[in-house]
Amino acid sequence: MSDYKTYFAERRDQHLNELKEWLSIPSISALSEHKGDILASAKWLADALTRAGMETVEIHETEGHPIVYAERMKAPGKPTILIYGHYDVQPVDPLNLWTTPPFEPNIRDGKIFARGATDDKGQLFLHVKAVEAILRQEGKLPVNVKFVVEGEEEIAGVSLPKFLEENSEKLKCDAVVISDSSLLEPGKPSICTGLRGLCSLEITVTTARTDLHSGLYGGAVPNALHALTSLVATLHDEKGRVTVEGFYEGVPTLTDLEKQDLASYNPDEKKLAADLGLDTLYGEEGYTFTERTGARPTLELNGVWGGFQGEGTKTVIPKEAHAKITCRLVGTQDPQRTLDRIDAHLYKHLQPGAKLHIQHIERANAFTCDPSDRMLQLAADAYEEVYGTRAVFTKDGGSIPVVATFSSVLKSPVVMMGFGLPDENLHAPDEHFSLDNFDKGLLTLVNYLHKTAGASAV
Amino acid sequence: MSDYKTYFAERRDQHLNELKEWLSIPSISALSEHKGDILASAKWLADALTRAGMETVEIHETEGHPIVYAERMKAPGKPTILIYGHYDVQPVDPLNLWTTPPFEPNIRDGKIFARGATDDKGQLFLHVKAVEAILRQEGKLPVNVKFVVEGEEEIAGVSLPKFLEENSEKLKCDAVVISDSSLLEPGKPSICTGLRGLCSLEITVTTARTDLHSGLYGGAVPNALHALTSLVATLHDEKGRVTVEGFYEGVPTLTDLEKQDLASYNPDEKKLAADLGLDTLYGEEGYTFTERTGARPTLELNGVWGGFQGEGTKTVIPKEAHAKITCRLVGTQDPQRTLDRIDAHLYKHLQPGAKLHIQHIERANAFTCDPSDRMLQLAADAYEEVYGTRAVFTKDGGSIPVVATFSSVLKSPVVMMGFGLPDENLHAPDEHFSLDNFDKGLLTLVNYLHKTAGASAV
For the Peptidase M20 dimerisation domain, which residue ranges apply (chains A, B) (predicted)? Predict the structure, then answer.
């Protein structure tokens, strides 16, 4: 690896200048006036992949923003690694909170500042340069490599899932590698082996045709707020468990290995509570913080409202009340089935005299993969040799639908090898990427491609 | 009574012209620019009382609007009747919804239209003219009469309670008569023998210092909306009863007579539900609609809010949630004690990890009097002879603090003899007063004053 250290050190300025060029393109997928920039960003990437030595480089038109595809399949009998990333970025508001303009990349304090620096151009760039480095140094790649890079990640677009379904044979691989996440903290790499799924709904409870006066009717007619609050209060028991019948079906029992992994990065819970301004954490009894957020499903009220919200008193009996609910799902919990179960629970527990209307909003499957999988263990090895500490396998409480889609469509392990840091302001002003992880990331990825050559191909 | 029929018929135009004069004065107590009109209205009334033959007529200055006091104590050994009313009126917005201007009284369809026509100038005017009629016809009153008329009724002012406390000896009487309410429906007189008290509070539940992301924290931290909704859901049991310990202390058991009275005007509950757009009414088990609203206390959520109320989904764990609550009270339930009991209940049932802040807002005592009291039975007799049907004794679900104050300070029965109708638009555009009840009201009040002469004085 010392050869590569030298190689990257000698070319560091040149590489950073190239990245700055890409980061200067305001490829904001959410804003139609940046359509041209989106195309320019895709084109820039395609050119960079060609320069790196990828053989086939294609820009696939979609109904939304194009998908950049590239491959180099010159390692017969060796595994195929598919690298995923995205070339679009978030909007930049509020602009006045940026220290330097978001599309004028600036290096200071060992960090590169720009929109997209860590999410995800900077991290994807590492893969391009890792491939290029191996080809320059060795003339060939130790494995077959494919790139799939989309331009709709920040707008939850539908083009990529469609592309995956339609090209599942072409995209066949032994591992999907994604660098769009972060280390646990500086110097502590992690590989995420679980993401929670999601389903969401909005419920409306109605009672009388109009709001009623509590002097004339109080105590004798249904109150939409009583009906709603008593209804949603039935969704959890006193120990924080969700009471919806069948809700936990498909939730895997944690293995000892998983418990160990989760324990290895469980925070000091008392300190965490204090940091959040809480007397105590709260959740399903019998589980730690990382187990609750990473490996257990949850049902949360995100909004509740009805009746009078102004100053003072209004003696009104409200005719309607609303609640927004999201569930985070794990294992094989089915989002639609979960929504149906919640519906059944709500109808069963509705107070007499109240009517219920339910709107389903989102559905996303959970993602989970086995940390003992060879492709994941090799990634941990690759990190260890560069960072001096082995990557921790984590379960993340959030939801990234595309990861579950890759996993289910391509049936390959997904290796989430992130090089960001938790405080790099993604989606916020002053987004940046640590140059220390830029350097270590390049070496880790070169290392990983070499290691996977030893794994057996599909 | 036929003499009085003729008397009033002959003077009807003159009386209506006088009332129109008073109704032309825009004595809106809520608006400071009408301060002069308030004084003019008080002065007009004082003059009318003098013309009617009241002996002592005083305008008492207060820190707010003046109180008009009058008395004629020339029936030694006979009971004393204190007549209460108010000479101020509500604001008139929205002005464009009035068919004729609110302060240009207009007679059409057997009704007089103007702000204050039924609430309360028109009704109080009946008492002035009843007294005047007896004095003109008979030269003396069969009982002693006092008038106490305030100008702050529509702004819930503090001057009258203070005046009552300070002048309780001067105001001593055998009955307080108030005409500021309505018949049950045309031709069906009623006497209200109960008004509910009130207490109100606002509660705020807080959890973490900031809103948290449900991906990172969902299932492992307290959610203010869970804490609030599960908390307020504990305030009622499944049968609609309030579960706060001691809440029902001071709630009287209904006597058979009261049950009969309440049953006599209980609506067709199925029809009422359908009219309100409800599948069914709902309330404390074992009670009818009129029992629930008239004789039972209640605790209502008037507003609940927290978290995200916009379109779509936001995966937020809210840090705070709010609820507004009012209770209607009956019998000797103490408003402050009730608030304290609710506080204790809420603190006892608060979920771990949540903090609670409670703000008490209003407190008013309930009013109740015994319908078998002689002064009330005589009022029912007086109605019966004029309307041909006996007045029903009702319990009203609303709260009128001044009634409870009269009852507690003067220790006299309060006779709520209203002559309005439920649909006369008080507090709304096109307020009016039925001339049929104007005519019958005069006769009923003359009748009542004669009847009370037979009751024993204090």
Answer: 193-352
